[in-house]
Design goal:
It is built from 29 helices and no strands. It is mainly α. It folds into 2 domains: about 450 residues, no CATH class; about 180 residues, Serine Threonine Protein Phosphatase 5, Tetratricopeptide repeat (Alpha Horseshoe). Helix 28 crosses helix 29. The longest helix is centred in the N-terminal third of the chain and has 45 residues. It is globular and about 85 Å long. It starts with 16 loop residues before the first helix and ends with a helix.
Amino acid sequence: MTRSRKPATVPTQPVPWWELAVLTLLLARFYLPTEASDRGLTLWLAVAAFLLLAGRMWRGSRILEPFPLRRPTLPECGLILLIGGHLISAAGAIWSGADCRAVLNHIWEWTSIGAMVLLLRDTIRSRALLQLLTPTLLTVAVTLSCLGCWQHFVWYPANARMAQRLQQLETQANLSEAEREERQRLIAEIPDWETSSETGQKMLFARLAESREPIAAFALANTFAGLLIVLLLVAVDQTFLQWHANRSRWLLLTIVALTACNLLLTKSRTAYAGAALGITLWGILQLWRSRPERRSQLVKGLLIGSGLTGAVFVIAFLSGSLDREVITEAFKSFRYRIEYWTATLQMLRDHPLLASGPGNFRQMYLQYKLPGSSEEILDPHNLVLELWASGGLLALSGAGLMIASLIRSMWAQRFSQSAAEVVPYSFCFRMACGAAPVVLVLLGRGAFEGWLDPTLGWLVLVSIISSMLLLPRCQETQVNAWMAAWMALSLHLCGAGGIGMPAIVQVWLLVWMVSLRETYKTPDNASDASSQWMWLGGIAVSLLLAFGCLWTGVIPVISMNHLLAQARVAQRTDSRQAVRLMTLATEVDSLSPDPWQDLAMAHMGHWKQSPRWNADSFTQAIEAQQAAIKRDPRAGKRYHLLGQAWGQKFAHSHNDDEAEQGIAAYRTGITLYPNFAPLHADLAVLLNDANRPAVQEAQRAIELDDLNRTAGHTDKLLPEEQRTSLEAIVAKGL
């Protein structure tokens, strides 16, 4: 009797932990609100990038690698200009007077992006990294798409029900003890409710009741949509490569469908256009680079894919997930963007070289915002204008070199590369690939921000299962897909903006670098006597950057935000304790204007509530407001608040000097924000109360209010009582 032989086991790939560390740091950005870069809430990832770069330098010194110091290629010159332009423009913004905290946060973010570029430059041609990149990105696609579906079908409806119940309790008289407790619980779950005015509460309720667009771990649906474009192209390319592998076909089709559905649910028109361009360009490149015998099969697959895409659109439209307004409001959305771009071009005409600098666009843009324009935007919603505005002409020229390099590379290779053999990985490594980015975010938030997002907990399990299923089956994504994804994302950013957000700029650069990986030169293996000292110098610089970011960014920002959160809670019950916490926050972070602004509002509240109109509280409020202005001198709204404080003091004391102080503050605010109706309206009222000519300012306020009413900007309208008083001022003057 013969024994049956056991099947031969396939040796597993040695664990490339270095590549996994680089990927983990890249993908962790997708599980954080990248729009919080102004506030510095993602700076701890910048510290991790500097430490990882120091580890890379140490590794090079230990194995006696030659230091990779060589003449940069044309694509690398574009990267240097892009990152260096932002750093130089940031330095110019600080020199000319800006919000130093926001600009410094962006300096650290862009420096960390430079560190990640250095790390990727050495590993981007590694087969291990390229083979890991595809399944880890698909794991992100599954994880965030599941989160997006949960937000659309569960989270948003639950928020709407909570807001509706809270609105009922707010209008109901004689609440029972249980209802009062329920009201307090709902207010705690909707923190912006209690601090908003009555109009703000109505707008917040409308937003909670109507919003259904998934945002994943970000704060904007457009940001999520930009990431989904890249993930969709990777999934489509993998589906094409694995079509004849029966075990992977339906799994990959499911990922494509899940990602496409989330893209539709974001209702991002620019993302729709970008995805359409990306898939079309991918198909053209596949046809152009494929061998003649495979073209008929490829055309058949493209036709089937187009039919399925159309069917998804029809189903989404009929089911109500895709609103009619997505199509009917497209012209209005485009008109808004024309307004943004027109004002931004006027700004860039006056400041062409360094422009506004990163983190300082809104303050400078508001000086040029068109009358009747809608939002006080953080970026111009255009890739080219945003690069110019935040990084100056240097960054814009760097982006031009990057685009030229990619277009040249498209013509350089006739046929697609052959897919590399899939190498099996160990079971533990499969779990680590999916779970590592989410676990890093959980640990980072717990250590630096002091709180955890409960929704990320179950995402770890989804990530582990996805990586276990995907990692052994995915092949290396073709260059065609990376090029098409970069073009598609760039088109989306031309209408949505967001290149200043770390997660978006990192995926934008990552896809570009992978597309051009064949253009990177491999350093010579010849030993260099000075390499050891260069590696040690690189270690010292990297550790110095990590310490500087930690000391000037992470620690003060996290501590300040923690103290302000405690102060806002204490303000409901103990106002003195709240003031003490705010004062401590000003000492912890001496650059941020936010604690000074909160402190000024708290002192003004004490002054107005004091029966004797305590002069000390008013003086402290003015000093705190001026300190906030000193730290953010281009913000017209801060001067508006200063003028309101002096106007309230004048209404109490009728002192002409106080009226002059208020008028001066309002006029400075109007210089910085000339088309803001409330500034003109409050100035007109103060001029009228001080027996000064007020007709011109009242007329200007009414004109701006009429423009907002015509455009339907309900959040910008003046209160009816104030508008009536302005009309009375105009009638009296005429």
